[in-house]
Design brief:
The complex is a heterodimer. By secondary structure, chain A is an alpha+beta fold. Chain A has 2 domains: 2-79 and 91-120, no CATH class; 130-253, Cupredoxins -  blue copper proteins (Immunoglobulin-like, Sandwich), CATH 2.60.40. Chain A contains 5 helices and 10 strands; from the N terminus they run H-H-H-H-E-E-E-E-E-E-E-E-E-E-H. In chain A, the strands form 2 sheets. In chain A, strands 3-2-1-5-8 form a 5-stranded mixed sheet. In chain A, strand 1 and strand 2 (138-143) form a beta hairpin. The longest helix of chain A is centred in the first third of the chain and has 32 residues, at 43-74. By secondary structure, chain B is an all-alpha fold. The chains are: A alpha+beta, B mainly alpha. At the A-B interface, helix 1, helix 2, helix 3, helix 4 and strand 7 of A face helix 4, helix 11, helix 12, helix 13 and helix 14 of B.
Chain lengths: 266, 604
């Protein structure tokens, strides 16, 4: 009898896994430990895919863990004098539990391709809105200025303070001066490594004004943790005024005779 | 070896040195130190890796301390940072997580599975007297020592140990200007890695040869226990993947010391310095590194899967459900394992179209893992379950592997990976696979085979206390990481709370750190039980668990040459609860008597 109680206790310990697991995921959004607010167009697809996979894996998780609990509860050696079932497997079951997950996984693979292509493959046909050059441990920004072309005399150079127009397609040209970095915008569901020697396009569109974090998500040295920037979306008119003002500030501080942007990374 | 292979010699393997007083110094050295006996080598691997497990665990605690209470005075370690007022410096933090991963992967998980269990179990479970190449086997252990010394010494060199992450992505890892740990620390890291590779390669060649050529009469490939199948396929993985890592390591070493530029593009400006040669590609390293290190993920879990399969059948007193599908799914994992490495590089700047290919193969590799899980559940179904400590750890492996396996699907989905890549979600995922999975399998294996290794059983009560506390603290530490990942909380940040997005996560991290402290402290119970049982535990006898496989027919511990008779195999490894048989287990060597033969006919 005593051994039976212990067996039940162990079964219940394994029951606690799905119970507390589901509870954790149920409580997390309530205490604001959950997906940060999404302000991008494509972020909706990513989030709904996240929820879809969460539901799918959640069902499988609960089902398999409950089955494990039930078997432990029921087939405890102390639960009665009986012999274990002498069985080596079941061809039918093997086929069933191979085909069903295979079909599900394949569906999932095909289903998500479109969302991936939207974020990483269907680049908008436009010149870069801004160039972001990552460097230990800051984000150097270069706006093309009035002529709309990067690498000319009227480029505007800034650090860490990325302002962009809301409701417009943005194309960032991402580069790195030194080591690997990763341009992570949690609120826009954007992440892209910056690789020295490569020029990588990143595009997104925000639907809301506001100011959000830029995080470095690839280890880049001791100061990795403090490689922080801000991305701010403002209406177009405000953005244009801001560009003008920043450009004027830059011209005022530029030493005479220095025609090149001193912050330009190549 | 000077000891005659007789049952009496068994005592020599594990007993205290006073029993060895009859030996000369050279005999002592060849028996206990430079031994060619696979069991001694296995136990040497076991002790070495358990010591490093402790080191890796303490490194993890230091990491957790900083994540929970950034820039607060560090207990014990604080003395090291006297000039910074007892705080940990950020470069020290980057070194901590780099070396935590390095130690756990290269000095604990890989050598404890293949080196300790592989060595100890392969000859015993296939009915061989030793490995095919005993000298090579001895060298595979002693080649670990230069690695131990290189990794260990790197903590004390100028600039400290490697701090470019365990993945050592260049150019961070190749430029000392980029990171202080990328000086001597990184060079020693690469040297250590090479020696671990040589050791693994020596072991892998030996395991493959032994399993193919030295099986006992009647031991066909499809009568091998799952442990041996897993070790065999792991050895194949190592043999094919390791050369790539070794070559990549030498290329990085050349970049660092000879001025080549395999991984550095032209025109870098690192910390206002301009490193010399260019013309290389940082992504090349990532491809080469992950071409090994993804199969290595399976090297780090397949042997545990095999051991857990054996332990589940023994304590459910039931044949393994779907033996052949289990073998095929291990082979499937190994095969697919070579074409999924790109899923570590979805955000790396690799062509996104190539990312789709790797996404599909990664989705499909979830399939054999699912099949294995269902078969484990099928094995427990209808069994007669005995809740021993070994069984509890094996069940925990199954329960936790479900979590680790399912969370992998999130990262395999490339669009979701955009958000959770390099966040705590991935940290949760691989700790569920490697700690809540593999480490549970390792503990299951230690409790299960301890009687064979040392002739005594471990204490069951304290074993269960150890299991219970580890299980609770482990989930407290790692499960919460999933929801941190859902916030996008990035890994490897010394202090993330100055970000608006993450500033409110400190209390949760503090909770996880308390759980981690509890988890490491719990291991004192294990250590005490382990050493007490080695000398004072109850004598086990040959087959304390009434198991079927060949190692349980040998004396405990087995003497040099393993078996005191020639084992002849008559059946598969999982004939438990055969109807009509008098016992509930039929060992692989039991002669086929009338009743068993009749039962076997019914079954097939």
């Amino acid at each position: 009898m005593n051994r039976r109680i212990w067996g039940m206790a162990w079964a219940i310990l394994f029951l606690a896994v799905p119970v507390l697991g589901v509870a954790t995921f149920a409580v997390a959004p309530a205490i604001n430990v959950w997906l940060p607010k999404d302000v991008s167009i494509h972020g909706r697809d990513i989030d709904s895919l996240f929820y879809f996979i969460l539901a799918l894996t959640g069902v499988v998780f609960i089902a398999t863990e409950m089955v494990l609990f039930w078997f432990l509860w029921k087939y405890d050696a102390a639960a009665g004098e009986r012999r274990a079932t002498y069985i080596h497997g079941s061809h039918t079951l093997e086929v069933v539990w191979t085909i069903i997950p295979a079909a599900t996984l394949l569906f999932l693979a095909i289903y998500q391709m479109n969302a991936w292509a939207d974020v990483k493959m269907r680049r908008p046909d436009m010149p870069p809105t801004v160039e972001v050059v990552a460097r230990q441990f800051e984000w150097r920004l270069r706006y093309p200025g009035r002529d709309g072309v990067l690498g000319t005399q009227d480029d505007l150079h800034l650090v860490n303070d990325l302002q962009l127009p809301v409701d417009e397609d943005i194309l960032v040209q991402l580069k790195s001066m030194d080591v690997l970095h990763s341009f992570f915008l949690p609120n826009l569901r954007i992440k892209q490594d910056a690789v020295p020697g490569m020029r990588i396009p990143v595009w997104f569109k925000s639907t809301e004004t506001g100011s959000y974090d830029i995080v470095c998500a690839e280890l880049c040295g001791w100061g990795h943790y403090k490689m922080k920037g801000r991305i701010t979306f403002v209406p177009r008119s405000e953005f244009d005024r801001w560009l003008e003002r920043k450009y004027a500030e830059q011209e005022a501080t530029r030493p005479a005779g220095d025609a090149s942007g001193n912050l330009a990374a190549r | 070896m000077s000891i005659a292979p007789s049952p009496l010699a068994t005592e020599h393997v594990s007993k205290a040195p006073q029993e060895a007083h009859g030996l000369t110094l050279s005999q002592f050295l060849s028996t206990y130190v430079f031994s060619k006996d696979h069991k001694v080598i296995g136990i040497q691997f076991l002790f070495s890796t358990l010591v490093w497990f402790l080191v890796g665990g303490l490194l993890a605690l230091a990491v957790r301390w900083q994540v929970a209470w950034p820039w607060s005075d560090v207990p014990v370690l604080g003395k090291l940072f006297a000039q910074e007022g007892g705080q940990m410096s950020p470069e020290f933090y980057t070194m901590l997580f780099t070396m935590h991963a390095t130690v756990m992967i290269f000095l604990v998980i890989i050598p404890i599975l293949a080196g300790a269990f592989g060595n100890f179990l392969i000859p015993l479970m296939i009915g061989a007297d030793d490995m095919a190449f005993p000298t090579l086997n001895m060298l595979s252990y002693w080649f670990m020592w230069p690695a131990f010394i290189a990794f260990g010494a790197s903590f004390f060199v100028e600039g400290g140990a490697a701090s470019g992450g365990w993945t050592s992505y260049p150019p961070l890892s190749t430029n000392v200007a980029a990171s202080p740990g990328s000086g001597w620390g990184q060079t020693l890291w690469l040297i250590g890695l090479t020696f671990v590779g040589v050791s693994s390669m020596l072991g892998s060649v030996n395991y493959m040869t032994t399993i193919i050529l030295m099986r006992a009469p009647g031991m066909t490939m499809f009568r091998l226990p799952m442990t041996i199948w897993a070790m065999f396929i792991t050895a194949v993985l190592q043999a094919f993947a390791l050369p790539v890592l070794t070559a990549a390591g030498f290329m990085q070493l050349a970049d660092r010391t000879l001025g080549t530029g395999f991984f550095s593009p032209e025109g870098l400006i690192v910390n206002n310095a301009t490193p010399g040669a260019g013309g290389g590609q940082p992504l090349l390293w990532q491809h080469l590194f992950w071409f090994y290190s993804h199969p290595a993920v399976y090297i780090m879990i397949l042997p545990a899967m095999g051991m857990v399969s054996d332990i589940l059948t023994c304590f459910a007193r039931k044949p393994l459900f779907g033996y052949r599908p289990m073998v095929y799914s291990i082979a499937g994992i190994a095969g697919l394992g070579f074409i999924v490495w790109g899923h570590h590089m979805f955000m790396s700047g690799m062509n996104p179209a190539l990312g789709i290919t790797f996404m599909v193969s990664t989705m499909m590799i979830a399939l054999p893992s699912a099949v294995k899980t269902f078969n484990w559940l099928g094995t427990v179904w209808g069994g007669r379950i005995h809740f021993t400590t070994a069984m509890l750890f094996a069940l925990a492996f199954v329960s936790m592997f479900i979590i680790g396996g399912l969370s992998g699907i999130f990262m395999a989905a490339t669009p979701v990976d955009i958000f959770i890549h390099d966040t705590y979600f991935i940290v949760a995922h691989f700790h569920y696979v490697l700690f809540a999975g593999t480490a549970m399998g390792v503990w299951a294996g230690i409790y299960y085979w301890f009687p064979k290794m040392f002739g005594r059983t471990m204490n069951e009560f304290w074993g269960k206390v150890h299991f219970f506390l580890t299980f609770i603290f482990m989930n407290g530490t790692f499960f919460t990481m999933h929801i941190l990942g859902a916030v996008g909380f990035p890994r490897r940040l010394a202090d993330a709370y100055h970000y608006e997005t993450f500033h409110h996560l400190q209390p949760m991290n503090a909770f996880m750190t308390w759980c981690a402290i509890g988890m490491v402290a719990t291991q004192a119970i294990f250590a005490a039980n382990f050493f007490w049982s080695m000398f004072r535990g109850p004598i086990a006898g040959r087959n304390p668990w009434n198991a079927n496989t060949l190692e349980w027919t040998a004396p405990s511990p087995p003497g040099h040459g393993n078996f005191d008779f020639q084992p002849v195999v008559h059946r598969g490894p999982y004939e438990y609860s055969v109807p009509g048989a008098e016992k509930d287990h039929l060992m692989q060597t039991d002669p086929p008597n009338a009743a068993a033969a009749a039962a076997a006919l019914v079954a097939h």
